[in-house]
């Protein structure tokens, strides 16, 4: 009986996720009247704005992952090693992006870094990209920190650190050569979530007027019928392909590390 309930829950979950996807795919193929075709996909792929905005968002997602790793891994490691009493405070701080809307964060950026401020980052494309990158890293912080902290909880951080220090390793080498390989799976979990967040994010990119994929999807959805469905399917497949590529790279890096 328990197995029956388990299969029932699994089937319901699969239907919940798959039915909308199947419906979207079916609708995207109906652009040509009376028959299925790939016209909507051809229209989307021929649009240079699609390639530009998707490439921009992929680049920002990779930079967001890199920035998140550089901030979160040393912080979570140091908290577990030296500041265990501050863990509840750090966890509370990392959860704040979940309760503070993105629109509040981006308006704060605009007020603090507008062209009349001491640091006019919004006055140039590079500065605005930097602000958007910081915003993305903020949105992804809860997921990246939770993933890395969970990975660190499986390690005896203090013993590993003392053993490495007894062999003469410095802090950078301890984090880069000892801690990082051991939490690589957790880091990749956080990276997947960060990637998915950045690819679909709309509010920050639109208010900072950056050519990201989220505003492009909204603009296309407001003016076309079948192309938005095709774009959603393409974005779904491309996002999973990019995440699979990240997973493959991490596995290859792990295999190479083990071989050494």
From TrEMBL:
InterPro entries named in the record: MetI-like, MetI-like_sf
Keywords of the record: Cell inner membrane, Cell membrane, Membrane, Transmembrane, Transmembrane helix, Transport
Entries under SUPFAM superfamilies matching the protein: MetI-like (SSF161098)
Chief localisation class: membrane
Subcellular location: Cell inner membrane; Cell membrane
Bilayer topology term: Multi-pass membrane protein
Record Pfam families: BPD_transp_1
Listed PANTHER family: INNER MEMBRANE ABC TRANSPORTER PERMEASE PROTEIN YDCV
Protein name from the UniProt record: ABC transporter permease
Organism: Paracoccus aurantius
């Amino acid at each position: 009986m328990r197995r029956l309930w388990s299969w029932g829950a699994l089937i319901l979950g699969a239907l919940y996720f798959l039915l909308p996807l199947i419906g979207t795919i079916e609708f995207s193929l109906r652009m040509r009247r009376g028959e299925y075709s790939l016209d909507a996909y051809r229209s989307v792929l021929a649009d240079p704005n699609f390639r530009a905005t998707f490439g921009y968002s992929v680049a920002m997602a990779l930079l967001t992952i890199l920035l998140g790793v550089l901030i979160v891994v040393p912080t979570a490691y140091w908290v577990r090693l030296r500041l265990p009493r501050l863990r509840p405070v750090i966890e509370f701080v990392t959860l704040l992006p979940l309760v503070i809307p993105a629109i509040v964060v981006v308006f704060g950026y605009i007020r603090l870094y507008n062209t009349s401020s001491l640091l006019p980052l919004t006055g140039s494309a590079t500065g605005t990209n930097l602000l958007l990158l910081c915003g993305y890293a903020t949105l992804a912080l809860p997921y990246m920190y939770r993933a890395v902290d969970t990975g660190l909880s499986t390690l005896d951080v203090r013993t590993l650190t003392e053993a490495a220090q007894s062999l003469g390793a410095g802090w950078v080498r301890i984090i880069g050569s000892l801690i990082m390989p051991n939490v690589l799976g957790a880091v990749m979990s956080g990276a997947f979530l960060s990637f998915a967040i950045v690819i679909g994010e709309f509010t920050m990119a639109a208010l900072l007027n950056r050519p990201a994929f989220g505003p492009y999807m909204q603009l296309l959805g407001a003016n076309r019928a079948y192309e938005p469905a095709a774009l959603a399917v393409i974005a779904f497949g491309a996002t999973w392909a990019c995440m699979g590529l990240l997973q493959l790279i991490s596995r290859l890096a792990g295999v190479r590390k083990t071989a050494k």
